[in-house]
Design brief:
Largest sheet: 14 strands, antiparallel, barrel
CATH topology of the domain at 191-428: Porin
Radius of gyration: 33 Å
Strand order of the largest sheet: 1-2-3-4-6-7-8-9-10-11-12-13-14-15
Distance between the termini: 105 Å
CATH architecture of the domain at 191-428: Beta Barrel
Structural class: alpha+beta
Shape: elongated
Number of strands: 15
Strand content: 35-45%
Order of helices and strands: HHHHHHHHHHEEEEEEEEEEEEEEE
């Protein structure tokens, strides 16, 4: 009996020892490869940080996860996405391409790489990665849609439409595909007809009325080209003016506003010209610098004496979320020095780029507004505030309206109030 008890004790010790050794082995493996539960918890924290303005912290946690388990691919993908969200596209590519090299065809890494190339406007590479994704995941809706986006943005509307139609056969209710296909079809409508009318009423004068009819067309060489007829009735005179605008692109991120006009000299300058190049800057800024030239001698297309007025202008604009901010000064040289004016615009975009509210405040003379264009010296001082609203009613039809108030000094010591009302419609075809 004593022998049996000793044997049971030894067996118990042996079992305990084996359990201890097994525990050490598991612990060692956990330290080496990472506890899946713990890593998932860390990854949840990384995601929470990434989506709550804590992208550097999210990357730190992802590095910690990958140091414990280099095959935790989701952490690498999240790290790559946070680099892209911070506009660090090269860093994002390095991280995500490493995942692809180690695990070919990994869905999330390919999806993230396509997004990186779309965000950085590198559409050819976006198409390449979309094709890579489709070769590993045939007919995958996300890859088809993103390839169509890249094709559309790179000007290949026909190919993009074909892929979207393919996607809609697979998923007829795909709203993103329907919206993009509609947008491509609208983009094919290169002509736009616009009708506008304005009424100005005064505290001490008869009302003025204005109208315009414009037809615009998108072209490859000159950008959008607009031919416009303007009408103005004031001081018992009727003025007529023809204008043409063009917006040619001369280099990547640079386009130019060009304008020329001629009139019967009543209520408008006899001729006018404008040149203003625009430059796209980093961080969604835009800058321009140009001039407006107006000639009031109807015997010459261009005058360079006292019959002409030259106004220098510039803009600095910034897109921030759904808002656009723009400051535009005007400087006009004269005998008694420089005349200065400026306007500031805040625009809030609604459902799309064609629907918005705008608030405009300004001081001084603005040559881009019809009520001033007939005589730059008519006003000594002017302060204004205006509200504009445009709404897209259908894919082809838009309406816009606005109202404003200005306090204007027309002679030294003589001021009046001006109230503005405008209405317009536009149609794409």
């Amino acid at each position: 009996m004593q022998f049996v008890r000793i044997s049971y004790k030894k067996i118990g010790v042996l079992i305990g020892y084996l359990i201890f050794i097994f525990g050490l082995t598991v612990t060692a493996q956990t330290i080496k490869h990472g506890n899946p539960v713990s890593l998932d918890s860390l990854f949840s924290k990384a995601r929470e940080s990434a989506y709550n303005n804590g992208k550097p912290e999210a990357r730190r946690i992802c590095r910690q996860i990958l140091s414990l388990d280099s095959t935790y691919w989701d952490a690498a993908v999240l790290m790559g996405r946070t680099y892209a969200w911070d506009n660090k596209y090269d860093s994002a590519r390095i991280v995500l391409n490493e995942v692809i090299e180690l695990r070919a065809g990994y869905y999330d890494a390919l999806d993230a790489l396509i997004d990186v190339e779309l965000l950085s406007n590198n559409y050819l590479m976006a198409i390449k990665y979309a094709d890579m994704g489709l070769s590993n995941h045939p007919n995958e809706g996300a890859f088809l849609f993103k390839k169509a986006r890249a094709l559309s943005y790179s000007g290949k509307a026909k190919e993009a439409s074909g892929i979207l139609n393919q996607l809609l056969v697979i998923d007829p209710s795909n709203k993103d595909a329907i919206d993009l296909l509609l947008s491509i079809r609208i983009g094919k409508m290169v002509n736009k007809l616009t009708l506008n009318t304005w009424i100005y009423t005064f505290s001490d004068n008869n009302p003025w009325s204005f109208g315009s009819v414009a037809i615009g067309r998108k072209t490859k060489t000159f950008g959008t080209v607009i031919l416009r007829y303007n009408y103005a009735q004031r001081f018992e005179n009727e003025g007529h003016q023809l204008e043409i605008d063009a917006y040619p692109t001369i280099a990547k991120g640079i386009y130019v506003y060009l304008n020329a006009g001629i009139s019967n000299k009543k209520n408008f300058p006899y001729s006018r010209f404008s040149v203003e190049p625009y430059f796209k800057l980093p961080s969604s800024f835009e800058f321009s610098l140009g001039f407006r030239y107006m000639n009031f001698d109807d015997k010459r297309i261009a005058a360079f004496d006292s019959n002409k007025v030259i106004i220098y202008t510039a803009t600095i604009g910034k897109y921030y979320g759904n808002y656009w901010f723009s400051l535009r000064p005007y400087l006009t040289p004269g005998k008694n020095g420089w005349s200065k004016s400026a306007s500031f615009t805040v625009r809030r975009y609604l459902a799309d780029a064609d629907s918005y509210f705008s608030l405009i405040v300004g001081t001084g003379y603005s040559p881009d507004e019809q009520q001033y264009a007939f005589n730059p010296g008519y006003y000594l001082k002017s302060n204004k505030i205006e509200i504009e609203y445009q709404q897209k009613l259908t894919s082809r039809f838009f309406v816009n309206c606005g109202t404003g108030f200005a306090r204007e000094e027309i002679r030294a010591g003589t001021k009046h109030n001006r109230y503005t009302f405008d209405l317009g419609v536009s149609f794409l075809f």
